[in-house]
Amino acid sequence: MTESLPILCLLFLNIVVCEWLSTKPGFRHLGTALLVIILTAIQANVGLVPTTDTPLYDAIFAYVTPFALFVLLLNVNLQDLCRAGLPMLTLFLIGSAGTIIGVVLSMWLFNGPQSVGAQFYALAGMFTGTYIGGALNFHAVALHYGVAKSGNLFVAATAADNILTAVWMVATLAIPQLMQRLRPVNRLQPASPGESLSATDLTNDEETLSPRDLALLITLGLGAMSFAKWLGTFVPSLPFVLILTTLALVLAQFRAINRLPGARVLGLSAIYLFLAVIGAYCDVGALLRDGQLAVVLFGMICTLVLIHALIVFGVGALFRQDWDVLGIASQANIGGATSALALARSLNRPDLQLPAVLVGSLGNAIGTYLGIFVAEWLR
């Protein structure tokens, strides 16, 4: 199958199937993103879709993925951060520093250049990005360094990340309750009533949009990509993905753009298409033969998250901070805004739901910058 249209049709069908599967018991915790990779990898390895470069795959990497990163960042309005509260914001930033320290130490402990290979620095940047603000940064750094085309490395990293994120959700649910019994502290008082209602709107995957909204989002996305490429010709040392990220964040500060409906749906759909291509690059046989790589990557992220946790909870314990705030701030780093919101709900803390989403959005804003910084530092 070499024609682009049938391949594209099948990739979109995979998204439909995986969205449906993600609502079913047994698949819900895997999530659409990982299911799309797995399903497309199976199809690629039985010959239904190509496993090598095609014009379609090249177009998705060159245009669809940057567009997805841009429109998803339009949801990040930094003016809202004051509503997160100083304790939550401070602990989130401490957690971000803990992530960077953890990434560098784990890469050293596991001898990254030998155990991972030539792209160890890019992987360090991906882990930095994703454990500061979520998967959006993971994909942005991977795209910049071309790790997206190293199918097996990308898939092994994604699988290890998904496992750890699920484990850390359980940990951040249990640790605050356990520590509150062992060392009780006063709970943080809510900043204002009713804020939790806005948190759901910020993470809702279902939106209603008009043709005008859709056309405007596409215009903004394509215009920003064109401008970023043009600007890059004058400053070749400045990564395209950072120029695009900065443009998105600048535009997101205007409420008329920040509140455009459809950005999340359009961005997620494009990201899922990108992940389907990642699955197509995955050689399952080689991945199974190279099982040691997955073990090494999982060991790395366990180490870095442990270091992150020791720093966040250690500082929080020293200053007798609310254990729930500590857990949610950590989860906003490791799992992103949606996971932090889910944790706040599970801990029965409606007053912390909106702050959880807001600091997670801050992670989306800074994670790519810090990820590329760490990668270049280790390079």
Key traits:
single chain, 379 residues, mainly alpha, 75% helix
Description:
Helix content is 75%, strand content 0%. The chain is mostly helical and 379 residues long. The chain starts with a helix and ends with a helix. The relative contact order is 0.21.
Describe the secondary-structure layout.
Layout: H1 4-21, H2 31-45, H3 55-73, H4 86-109, H5 112-115, H6 120-133, H7 135-145, H8 151-182, H9 196-202, H10 211-234, H11 240-252, H12 255-258, H13 263-280, H14 284-289, H15 291-318, H16 323-334, H17 337-346, H18 353-378
Helix pairs in contact: 1-2, 1-13, 2-13, 3-7, 3-10, 3-11, 3-13, 4-6, 4-15, 4-16, 4-18, 6-7, 6-18, 7-18, 8-15, 8-16, 9-18, 10-11, 15-16, 16-17, 16-18, 17-18
Order of helices and strands: HHHHHHHHHHHHHHHHHH
Could you describe the largest sheet, including whether it forms a barrel?
none
Unreliably modeled segments: 192-197
Number of strands: 0
Radius of gyration based on Cα positions = 20 Å
Short overview:
By secondary structure, the chain is mainly alpha-helical. The protein has helices spanning 4-21, 31-45, 55-73, 86-109, 112-115, 120-133, 135-145, 151-182, 196-202, 211-234, 240-252, 255-258, 263-280, 284-289, 291-318, 323-334, 337-346, 353-378. Helices cover 75% and strands 0% of the residues.
